[in-house]
Amino acid sequence: MPVTQPQIIQVFLDHLKFQKRYSQHTIVSYQTDLVDFFNFIEKEFEATFPVEIKSSFVRSWLAGLKEKGLESKSINRKISTLKSFFKYHLRQGLIQTSPMVTILSAKVKKRLPQFVAEKDINTLFNYVEFPDNWNGKTNRLLLHLLYNTGIRQAELINLKEAHIDIRNSTIKVLGKGNKERILPVSNELGQLIQQYINNKHDNFKVPNIEILLVNEKGKKLYPKYIYTVVKKYLSYVTTLDKKSPHVLRHTFATHLMNNGADINAVKELLGHSSLAATQIYTHNTIEKLKEVHSKAHPKA
């Protein structure tokens, strides 16, 4: 029985899922890119199998994406998908050379990550009122956790009570690729977490004690809930275009760097696998130094 296009893609996706242990979200992104690519080359070049694909086919597909207005960052993600796909087939001995060897990534304009000013964060936690109900308590804690630890939205949602160590003022976070990291928390945040846990056990007859943050029904939070809460409360204190959970992660890192934190320490706190991903925050620090210099130096 001949191997079909869907089977070729599925074998690779299974490799990502069971061998690489990629998240479902990442696997879906790979699948979308590969299906689009193979549909294109089958229609335009009547090619179906990896061994039939040439670099010119890939360039033609990428050129079409650019003509449709796709941003360089998104195009590079698709290039990365194809590189991984053909690298896998090369290792399996199914192809002799990869058509991606001559494909270069598109140039991406570097944009500094947006962050909330320290004075605005102070306003958020000291002057903005939260409702005196379960949602108010949950919303206040999730905002504190995002800003004080810099964890990702998915890491926050999956944070468990068992991951909280109040005595040692730390929390354990399960990050990308199932990598664990231990993060310090302040005494203030530790007390806030403990109060929340105690209230949860008192408020719900059968509380979900595994997951830390729950909604008014005692159920695990979902991404849209987190995003909506962050956007709502940040809109009270800042006029930034973006008001997302990731902005609070950027804010955490930028405030650390602006106050003299070592970049390697920030890298570990964020759970970055490469220092290159953390270095973008040094640009914000330099911009702040330029601002201070221009305001304070007589010859600026």
What's the short story on this structure?
With 300 residues, the protein is mainly α. It is built from 13 helices and three strands.
Which descriptors would you attach to this protein?
300 residues; three-stranded antiparallel β-sheet; 13 helices; 4% strand; 57% helix; mainly alpha; hpI Integrase, Chain A; DNA polymerase, domain 1
What can you tell me about this protein's structure?
- The chain is mainly α and 300 residues long.
- The chain folds into 2 domains: 5-91, Tyrosine recombinase, N-terminal domain (DNA polymerase, domain 1); 118-296, Intergrase catalytic core (hpI Integrase, Chain A, Orthogonal Bundle).
- 57% of the residues lie in helices and 4% in strands.
- The chain has 13 helices and 3 strands, in the order αααααααβββαααααα.
- The protein has helices at 5-19, 24-45, 55-67, 72-91, 118-126, 134-149, 153-157, 187-203, 223-234, 245-258, 263-270, 275-278, 280-296; strands spanning 164-165, 170-174, 180-184.
- It has a 3-stranded antiparallel sheet, with no helix packed on it.
- A hairpin with a 4-residue loop joins β1 (164-165) and β2.
- It starts with a helix and ends with a helix.
- The model has no long low-confidence stretch (mean pLDDT 91).
